[in-house]
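Hey, I was hoping to borrow your eyes for a little while. No rush at all, and the record is pasted right below:
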Amino acid sequence: MLRQDHEFMDVALQAALQAGRAGEVPIGAVIVHEGEIVAIAANRREQDHDPTAHAEILALQAAGRRLGSWRLNECTLFVTLEPCPMCMGAAVGARLGRLVFACRDPKAGAAISLYELGNDPRLNHRLIVTEGVRRQQASDLLSGFFAALRAGDRAVPDTLVESLATESLAVPEGLAVTESRALPPIQDRP
């Protein structure tokens, strides 16, 4: 693990906190190209009413737009939870160079837990996978969110936000968590 891995994962955790405050499952993603953050995103499934609005998908889309290419082979994706099959498929399709995730997802993880899509010899691309960067913080954030949800609150508890919010979790100046652009509701379309 590189020292910078922790710094970039801190930014992903900040995006996850923002998602949790908005009532989304608190997952954040950051894409880095040549040592520079090119995309930051958080889950937006509830807000966008979009089952594909996972943090990883939104970050991959934003990075592609910013870099002017769908090929992200020189990029690293940092995400707070092991990607699901959809997100791993998108990472492989984008020819992502490296994936770094905080904690495993035993129910849907497609990087290591259930599948190893980033290292499947049947696919046309492989990527380097690193796990465990800020594992405890990401796990605490997810556990706190789901405990609050079971108690009837759909947001990250303030006490958890306060314990995780540190100066090291600041989003770099000039970047913001990506907002996806949703199509208008079906009844409003021509």
